[in-house]
Amino acid sequence: MATILGLDIDPQTVRAVAVRTALRKTEIVGYYQQPIEPLPPPEEGEGGIAMTDAEPEDAQLAAVRRAIRGVLGSLAQPPDKVITELSGDEVSIRKASLPAKAAKKLDELLPFELEGKVPFDITESIVDHQPIETVDGELRMHAAVVPRERIAAHLGEMRMLGLEPRHVAVGAVALDGLVPLVPQLTTPGPHALIDIHPEGTDVCILMNGVCHFARTLSVTIADLDAGRQSVLERELRQTMAAWRMEGGSSPSTFFVCGQMAIRPGTDAWLGQIVGAPVETLQLPQAPGADEAVRPAFARAAALSGRALARGKH
Questions:
Q1: 29: how many CB neighbours lie within 10 A of its CB?
Q2: Taking the C-alpha atoms of 145, 303, 204 and 128 in order, what is their torsion angle to the nearest 10 degrees?
């Protein structure tokens, strides 16, 4: 029996989903969240000079650490595995294709295939991949490239927060971790998942439970709150056009998930943009969150669910 914790940390809240696995049985143990205390305004000393006992970054880190401790303290026992993520704007994700017979040498060949196609120095980056399908002897895959120093910084930040992640997911591809938890997503589809969050907007298109298309858009929740809905409308339409240009068929279902999913009217508004009904993705019942707020835990649920999926990620 193992307990897996998917951890979603945004600027205001730490959300987590714990999944317990035993033999062939899997269940969500609970949904957990803790607010991150806002930093107090700096006090002014003589002459109007701001006085503070700690640097803002140190104070913010301490606030996040307290929130994480609150989440971990709510668990019946420490998790066996913690899964975190890097936002899609920190990672370059590209589709690549190589002969299937070269599968055993992908770690050697893929960096050469991607060199010059990503905005990072391949020799100073970590390269990984996730298979999509094999067609006519060609293995199609998502390839992720991230600078080593960014991974090191992320792991360092997590250790300062008292965590040792066993898996770091990346960008919109991470949403396929919802497949083991939401049976509807295992059907042929295509199913489109849309998650608007504080770092951007992730679009993940699934077919037969496999991520075939993933893209992170620039528009954040703050952008929408500032009235820049037209930017997201344009980027979403461009994204769906890019999917169709790859030969993809129109999704049979669209789901909105994550924090924006619990805002009234989001599904109807997105439906107008994509020209099809949009449903709010419903997660399994478990203690800690009712039906009204569960959709906000989609990112954390996807992270925990990635440990359940078979195959390479």
A1: 20
A2: 20
Q: What is the pLDDT of residues 70-103, one digit of tens each?
A: 999 999 889 999 999 999 989 999 999 999 998 8
Nearest to 312 by CA among 128, 145, 140, 188: 128
pLDDT confidence bin for 38, thresholds 50/70/90 = confident
Q: How far is CA 263 from the centre of its chain?
A: 19
Per the DSSP assignment, residues forming a β-bridge with 34 are: 14
Give the bridge partners for 119, in sequence order: none
Neighbours of 15 (CB within 10 A): 27
E-strand stretches of the chain: 2-9, 13-22, 25-35, 43-44, 50-51, 81-86, 92-99, 125-135, 138-147, 167-170, 191-197, 200-207, 210-217, 253-257, 278-280
3-class state of residue 286 by DSSP:
strand
